[in-house]
Each structure stands twice: as structure tokens, then as C-alpha cells.
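Field: COMPLEX_INPUT
Field: COMPONENT_COUNT = three
Field: RESIDUE_TOTAL = 1396
Field: MODE = joint
Values follow.
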Amino acid sequence: MDPAWIISLQLYLPVLFAAGLLLPIPALSERKVAWIYSATTSCISLLMTCVVFWAFDWSQPHVMQLSAEVPWLPQFGLTFQFGVDGVSIWLVGLATFLMPVVVLGSLLEVDHDMRAFHFWLHILEACLIGTFIARDVLMFYACFEFSLIPLLFLIGMFGHKNKLKAAKVYFYYSFTGSVFLLAGILYVAWFHFNQTGEWNFEIVALIESGQAMSVTEQCWVLASFLAAFAIKTPMWPFHTWLPLAHTEAPTAGSVDLAGLVLKLGPYGLLRIAIPLAPAAAALFAPYLGVFAVLGVIVTALICWVQTDAKKLIAYSSVSHMGFVMLGLFAFDGGDIGATGAMYYLIAHGLASGGLFLCLGMLYDRFHTRDLREMGGLAKEMPMWSFFFILFALAAVGLPGLNGFVGEFLTMMGTANSPDGVLGWSFAVAAASGVILAAIYMLYCVGRLCFGPLKLPEYVPQKEVFEAAISKRTFHGMSRREVMTVGPISVACVVLGLYPTPMLSSMEPVVQANTAAVKAEIAKLHGSPEAEVEVAEFDTSGMEVSKQRLYNMDLMVEPIAGRDVRAEIKQAFGTGSISYSGSADISGLIAEVAAEYQAEREAAQ
Amino acid sequence: MSSLLALSSPMLSHYLLTGAVLFVLGLIGFVSRRNLIVMFLCTEMMFQGVVVTLVAFSAFHGNFTGQTFVIFVLTIAAAEAALALGLVVLLFRRKQTLDASAWSSMRG
Amino acid sequence: MGNLAVILIPWLPALAALLIAVIALKDKLQKLAAPICAGAVGASFVIAMIVWMNLGGPETVDFYNWIAFGDFRLGMSYFLDPLTMVMLGVVCGVGCLIAIYATGYMKGDPGYWRFFTYVALFIFSMTTLVMADNLVLLFLGWEGVGACSYLLIGYYYDKPFAVSAAKKAFIVNRVGDFGFLLGIFLCYQRYDTVQLSVMLEAARHNVEMLAAGAYNPTAADLWIPFLLMVGAFGKSAQIPLYVWLPDAMAGPTPVSALVHAATMVTAGVYLIARCIPLFELSPAALPTVAVVGGCTALFAATIALCCNDLKGVFAYSTVSQLGYMFVGVGALSTDGAVFHLFTHAFFKALLFLTAGSVMHALAGQLDIRTMSGLRHKMPVTCWLMFVGCLSLAGFPFITAGFWSKDLILGDALAYGLDHNQLYLFVTLLGVITAFLTAFYTFRLWFTVFMGEEKFEMGDEHHHEEETHAEGDEEHDHDDHHAHEPHEMPWLPMNAPLVVLAIGAIIFGVLGYKLHWFENIIGYSTANPVTVPVLDLAHHGDAHGDKVHHTYIMGMDPHNFMIILSSILAVAGIALAAFFFWINRPLTASLAKTFTPIVKLLENKYYIDELYDWMFVQPLKRAGGLFYVVDAMIINGLVAFVAWIPAMIGRGVRPAQSGRLQGYGLGMVMGVAIFALLIFMAVNR
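Field: COMPLEX_OUTPUT
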């Protein structure tokens, strides 16, 4: 198969399947039939993803692969282009992986407008895939924006008590941000037109020409992008739509929201905003870091006083996304932070998705999410408790499960962040979030799973009851339910014990996207990659003109007995020297250069 | 303007002036009258003002573009008259009046 | 083959845990849980011992790349040196014995398989902890044992106290982990790696330079030990993070023995011993460790004096003994600390398990005020516990606890005499603690086993009762409801205890006289580089062969300490015998006289209440406040922004009159203005 077809199919299949639901077949309106249809089709999409994974060349993950182009209005440079690289392939994988899970999990909850429900689920999947594989900003924007609509319907039609308000707030809030995003995109495209004389919306091209933007322009562009992405992520204090939307959404909506839609923000930042406006990103990073840290701590404390289990998990998502933002804007030398942030997207998608699914199962049974009404479920539903505790521990960041790797790497990146960006104070504050996470998660687990058995007074409908707690039950869960959360839990463990493949395919992409920022930071703060002019000390016969200096502990002079002077001197001969740290060594270099010159002259 | 009026044989500007006067009369009628039928007739008058202008330009430029347009406009005006009068009759049946101010439910 | 064996040491228990969880889905197979668990742990022990015998020098075994990308690499790699092997011996050996004991102890419990899954997982985490080649993998084990401890403390999850104790343990440990994590980050910044073998080598080099006066510690060097220390204090229950350990006794007794006495709580000691070069770089670090250890030892011992809970006494004594170990590492006597860790694992496991037998026999009764003269009912348990108590009390010459404690105190004293007077104070704390330990240990033993026979059966809240209520047909403890306590069966319960008791006796002389631990430490990273870090004026090689320059009262400090603590231990035991065996009425009246003090001690100095008032409540109130701020202010701002366009709309609404003429007029005027503008533009 032509590689371009693979990725196109991946995008079009969900749309086709959604269209299939519109066929005039009355049976499709029935709960079971629609469910089976949807489960089957989403599994086919998942298989398609396996094909994508197979066709992807893992040896060069930083290259956009399996690219396809669909001309739209070529005379205006409007061409939809898509492809996958080391980061987006995993996010596509997460999207198609969560889809069958979500379908499986919502058999009982949704009992009307079956076609509409599954239709919008498929459309949402297509939008998410489209956003992740977009290679041009227009396609990105179109899919990013259109993902609002399926969720609007999923929340507004199938949500709980306050569903209309939640849907409205979610839509307006996100839409307002997106308007700024569109403005930013248009400005950047117009800038590109001015530079090159032709319209082109390809991200790579825009980034290339965008280098010429002044810092002020970059700041405005980044601000406009941030308006959309910070709301979507959501970053404290732009998060208030999230708890409402999560609480009112059906389980499927919550899982897709937490697991996938929130990921659009950080992904967009890494893919478009940061490389497009590197100088601005370097300037903004400390302020964003402050918001991220505040978000981590404040929302974690808020979690602790929640009585609605779903709201608790929703707030915890805000807290976790604070870690992602920290890592993303750490810009440390080894890209540990940003790689960790991208990994954390996947990890959080799985863990919080699992938690929402578990809570959905409770809601199916008891029609309540109030922590005060339930307790001691480990006795009646041991299997459920097992999964719930597993996901909770993953969310808390227990090593060996996936949450830890992300949390650890983002915090490590924050600590290693160069001076003037983030740094130790941020790392310390974020690490205190680790304590708070344990507090609120264990509070939730302790309330739900442990303690004396306490069941709410709700008597389930007969049908629901039979399906959930029939003879097919399996230590308190039905087979369907085990199949729903089972794969996620396996993924949590596997990714926690062996994250290397994912991380090592993400890292080159991240590095390519943050390289410009790191250069800007070096210009701003003089570290860690300080460019020191040695040209003026140049002597005849030396080809060293301008040296890029990095990675050497010169500021700690006596360490391990390194002779700095000798090393610099040698560097004049060989043409390479590495240096890192905040100390300014240009004076030392000048001194040594003079010495070197004198020696050479003496020799001649 | 006065010099144009002084000329004996009609020129382009005369036709244009006639068209403009017709249009403005129709406009004033549309804005000031409340009777739906009269308002409708006034819009027809505005149409005729435009039509006169078009024909005048057609003659002035020596081609048929303007006149072709006129044919179109007249055809559409005829069709529209049939529809609009029917609507007016419907509206009259609803409220037993032709006063346009009776229909103000679109007020913000 | 060799590598595979090493890898199997931690992963065998992990596989066992998985296997137990899978077979437990079938009710019939659930009773296989115990043999699988004990077998796997035992196999790990055997493998570990074989590996040890074939171990030449320190060795690194790579399993796979755990977290690796770009230049960053954390391997699932294991580092083997004698220190690791000792720890493995303790973890797997004692773990296996306790698992065998638990086979009987947990019989009939509805969560039988669950218990053994957790234990197997615990052993996996603990072995990973002691074998880890990098700090992050160590942290995996570190958190893993924390999570298993959480699950095991909360094992009786329908008891609210157990649940809150479990939560408390995890959260307090997290406070320690906070420091540990930051310490890892700082290590990475300082050494560009967190691989222990590489990092410690560099640190060792720096310590040598420091001793030679050629190195100036960086800020990172000064901070790293303090951050790691926070983690160690959390895991090993030292002041101020000790509060979780006494509550942790809510778990089943074998857990208290395994997790909260023998293995997990010693992880902090292990961490400091392992990373001793890092600590030597910071002049204030080791004295801090020693002082905190000394204070904790004394503090916990005073609480144990008035504790009326059978397991509580041992819990506080564990805190106290861990304090000794910290004094040991703090005085650069890593061999003493590891020695004490080793012997403590035996006698404390023995004590907990015998306490468990008593508890088992009395249907969950824990209050020692209700017990007396049980020696006739449970003779084997009585004398096994006697051995444990002797060892804990440090009865001179024949017990292991005596020798290991004296090694620590002697080293601390010598260090204080030679280098740093602060250590004399620490030694004093230790000596007082030694006396108190002997007293409270035998207070418990005399109270429970001597005197006239008297006992009350436990209440129905205990799990045995529930077992009966659940109606498990297969259990063979039908005589629980009989109103007579009874001796435990030899297999599987008493036999492992005998092994532990033998260990609690013989390892002392062997360890002390044959210099086992000195030799072991000498080939590991825990070998301190040089003594006079804290006091650069002295450069003598005082440590290596236990020759000290300074003598006290004409004696070598170690010999002095042996004599002193022998006297104190015997005196403590005698005093306890007098008060709690011979003349009990006098004790009761004395307790009445000193009611306020007794009250203060019984309430553990009100530290829990203090913490609640200082940390928990303010944080919770902050959470409530933030929630209100979130809902009112932030959401209010958002609503305000949304309100602006609404208001503008309302302002321009009258323009929409609903009158046809109005719209017409508006249109005309618009066109007119537009035309005028064009006209003006053309005629400019």
C-alpha cells in the first residue's frame, strides 16, 4: 500500500464509519446494534493504527512520515497535508486506543439517540486524529476547532443534570480562545507571504520564514496561540470550564476530554507555537512556569475538599497538566522536560481515562458520584477496586506505573532548566505537588474502596442491574467492564516499566522543536550554550573563529583536578571546546589566547 | 446642473435625473407610508427608477447590456409582485389590517 | 546464566505476585497462594546466596533500558556488592521465614491470597531497592515498598483506623520522598548521572580530595545529603517523620514484622550507608543524622515506657532502634549500622511474630493490661519472646543486639572523643536509651508472661472473628472461640521463630568478633572514605581497625561501652522485674502519683494532634478557600468577561425596532453615508 494511503485511511475511516450510522437502517437505532457496530468499527480503526505503527520507520522518528497531501485551493496555498512523526504517532495511537474502550464503557449509560452518540464519537475521533497528524496550520486549526462540535453534542445531549450549561460554557470558552489562534495563524501566514511572496500554510515553512519575526511580533503570536492552547490544556487559571464539563459529561465524554482533547493544547504548543516564536517562548517561560506551579498546588488542594468523585478527578487533571506545562517550558539541555511532558500526555490520558471509566461504572450502578454516599466497595467489588486503585496509584505517580515517568522527567527537566527560565524553586514547588497528589488520591480511594461497606440507597433499574451485577459478574464487574479497563491497566504497567521506545521516538521530535528556543535562551541568559567570541584572539593558522561552547564544568574549577587553562589552550589547537554553566569565561579565554599567541610567536 | 436642464433635446443626464427622482420618490414613499400595498408599490417605483437609469446607460454606451438587465429585472419584478401581493393578502388575513407597524415581533 | 540469576532475585517474587493474582480468580486455587509466595521468596534467597558466593567484586548487571532517550539513560540495572548481598540475605531470608509463619497466621482469612500477593510484591520492591544501580531505580523500589506498605497496613480495609493509618503512612512517606526526589535531581545536576556506581566513585574521589584539603564542596554537595536525608527519615521513621510507624501496626502482624521492623523501615539506613561518600562531602550532614538518630532513639523509648499496646511497644522500640542505626551511620560506623540492621531484623521479627502468636491466641487482644502470666498457656512463645527481649534489651555477651548496639555506641563514643564533641552527647542519648530499652522490653515481657494467670479475649472486631462470621469452612482454628489461649503449632508457625531466635543469639558474637560487617562494608560503597571530614585537623586512620587514639578511663572506648551497657541492661531488666513481676501494686500506685507524665507519654506527647493542627487542618482549609476562590473569583472573572458582550448587545438592542420602515430608513442612510464618502474620496 502506498504510505500516503495508510495515513489517509486512518483519518477517513472514522468519518466513513460515522457516515455509516446515517444509513436508513432502523436497527441501527437500537442500543445493542449501534453499540456493536461502533465497537467493531472503532476496533477496525485501532487495527489501522497498528498498520500505521508497522509502516512507520522507527529509525528516524523526527521525520514526518507517511505524508499525504490533499489540494483544497492550491492557488492560495491551501493544501491539507498530513503525516506522522515520533510524537504524533503515539497520540494517534492513544486516540484510536481509547475509542473502543470508550464505546465498550458506555453501553449502559447512554440510552437514547444511539446513532447520534456513536456518530459524534466517531467524528470526535476523526477530529483528534486530524489534529495530531496535521502538517499545515489550516488543517490543524480546522480539526482543532471542529473537535468542539462533537463534544458539544456529547455533553449537551448525553450529559447529566447541568448538561446544557456545561456544553455552552465549554463551547464558548474554547471558541473564544480559538479565535485568537486563528488570528495568530493568519498573521503568521501573512508574514510568510510577505517574506516569500506566496501563500503557504505548511508548519515547517511558516516556522522557517517566521524566524525573521521581531521579538514583539513573536510575543503577540505566542500570546494568541497560548490563548487557545492554555484554555484547552487547561492551564490554571483558565481551567474553570473543565470541572463543569467533566462533571456533566457522560463517561465517554469525560474520557475523551481528559484523555485526548486536553492533549491538543500542549501538542499544539510544542508543534507550532514554540518553534514559531522561540524568543517569545524563552521570555514567557518563567511566567508560564509560575502559573503551572500554582495550578499544580492550588488545584491539588482543591481536589482534597471535593465530594464529587468526578470533579475530584477533573481537578486532578488540571494539576497534572501543570506538570506538563512545566516540562514543556523547561527547555533544559537534554530535553528531558519536554520529552517527559509529551510522555505525560499519554500517561495521563490512560490513567485519568481509566479513573473516569471506573467512576462511570459506579454511576451505572448507583447513579451517584458523591463520595460521602459510598464506601468500602472493595468488599463488594474487589475487581473494580483493584483497577481503581491501580489507576489512582498511576495518577499519584508510583514508580513502575506510567504516571511516575512523566512526573519525574518533567520535574527533572524543570530542575535542570537553565538560569532565568525555570529552575529549582519551580522544581521544589512542583515536587510538593507530589505530596498533595498522594493526599487527595488516597482520600478518594480511602472513601470509595475502603472503610465499612456503604452503598447508596439508589435501586438500579432492572435492566441495568442485571447487566452490571448478573451471574456474568466477575468479582463485582461484568466481563464487558473488565474488557473496558483491562487494556488500559495493562498499558499503564507496560508504559511504566518500559517507556523507552516511546521516549526515544519522542525525543528527536522534541529536540527539533525546542532547538530554536534553546538558542534564544543562550542569547538571553548566556547559558547553558554560551557563544563566546574568540575571533578577536584568533592567531594565524587557527581556523577557530567562533566557537560553540557547551558541556563542561568550568565554573567549578578544582573539580576532579581539571586544568581549565590547558583545556582552553588545547581547544585553540583542535578547534573545539565545550563549556557549560553560568560563569563567564570569556576573560579567561582572552587571557589564555594571548598566552597562546605569545607561545606561538616565540616558537616561530 | 442648471445648464443641463437648459438644453432642449433630452440628454443622458435628463434620463438619469428622471431615474433618480423616481427612485427617491419611491424611497420616500416606502419610508413614510405604513400601508403594506403602498409600500410595495413604492418599491416597484424604485425599481422603475433603476430601470430608467439602465436603459439610459444602454443608449449612451450603444450596447444592449443595460437593456438586457432591464428585461431580467422586469421579469423578476413581475414574479416578485405576484408573490409579494400574495404575502400581503396573507398578512392581511392574519391581522385584518394593512398597517406595517402591526408586524413588529422582530423587535430586539 | 549469572546475569539471569541476578535478574531473577527481584523478578521471581514479582512473577509470583502475578501468578497468585491470576490463580486467585479461581476460588479453589487460592490456598496455593502461600506456598507460591514463600517458595518464590525462598528461591530468591537461595539464588542470592549462590550469587554472593560467586561474587568477586562489585558488579553491575544490566537487565534492560528502563527510561532511555537521547543522552539520558536509566537502566533496569542491578548493582551487586557485599552490602547489597547482606541486605538481600535479610530481605529474602527473613521474608521467607515470615511468609512461612504467615501461612499459618493468615489461614482462614478471606483475603488470604491478597495478603500473599502484596507480600510478594513487597519483596520485589525491596529487593529492587537494595539492588538498584541508579537512584531512580532505587526510588522505584522505595516507592514500591511504600505502596505495598500502604496496601498491607490497610489490609483490614473495613476498619477505619487501618485505612487512615495506611493513608498516613503513605503520605508521611511521600513527604520524605519529596526530599528524595529533589535529591535525585540535584545528584543528576552535580554528577550528570544518577548511576550509583559512577556517582559514588566521583564522590569518593572528591572526599579524598577534601580530606587532602584540595577540594571545596559546591552548594550541590552541601545540599544533596540533606535532601536524601529527608527521604531516609521518612522511610525509616525518624523525627520528625516517625508518626506513621506506630499507626502502621494496624496491619497484620507478619506485616509488622516484615515490613515495619525487619526490612522496609531500614531502607533509610541502607540509603545513607550506600551513599555515605555523598554525606561525607557535607560537613553538617552526618552530625545531623547522628543527632536526629540519637534524639529519636530516646524519644521513642520514652513513649514505649508507657505504651499499653503489645505491638505498639515493639513499634516504638523499632523507631528507637532505627535511631541507633542512624547514630551508627552518622558516626561513620556504617559497619555498626548494618550490623545492627542485620541483628535487629532477626530479633525484632521474632518479637513481632511472637507478639502475633499471643494476639492470635487471644483473638486479637492487644492491651497488655489485660494479660498476665501466660507462660503456662504458651510456653514456647513465652521463651521465644524471652530470647527476643533479651536481644532487644542488649543482655550482655550472649545476645546479638548487645554486640551490634555496642559497636555503634562504641564507635560513636570514639568518634566523639577523637573528633567531634557533639558525638559525646549523641552517645549519652544512646546510653540512656539502652537503659530504657531494657526496662520497657522486660516491662512488657514480665507483665504478659509472669505473675498470676489472667487474660481477656479480644473483641469481635478482630479479623479472626470475621473469618468465622464469613463461614469459611476449611480453616482449622475452630478452637478460637474456646476461652483458652493455646500454643501455636510447630509448623508452620513456631519453627520459623526458632530459626529467628537462633539468629538473634549467634550472629552477635560471630559478627562482632569475626569482624564480618567490617569486611563486608570494606568492599562496598558504604565504606567511609576517611574519618576527619567533620574535623579536618585530625587525619588519623582511626576507623579501619578500631584502634582509637583517645582512651576513656584507661580503656578502649569499645570496651568501656561494653561494660557500661552491660551494667545498664542488667539494671534495666532487674528494675523491670521488680516493678512488673515482684511488686506490681507499687507500680500501680507510682503510676497514680505521676499521672500527668504517664498521661503525656500515653498520648505520645500529643504529636499527632500537633501535626494535625499545624499541617493538616491549615492545608485543608486552604483547599476549601481555593475552591471558593476558584468558584467565585476566577469563575466570576470569566463570567464577567462573558458579560461584557452581553451588555454591549443589550445596549444596541433598541436599534432593532422591528419596524420595516425603520430598517428601510437605516439602510437608506447607510447607503447615503457610503455614497457621500465615495463622493468625497473621488473629489478629493
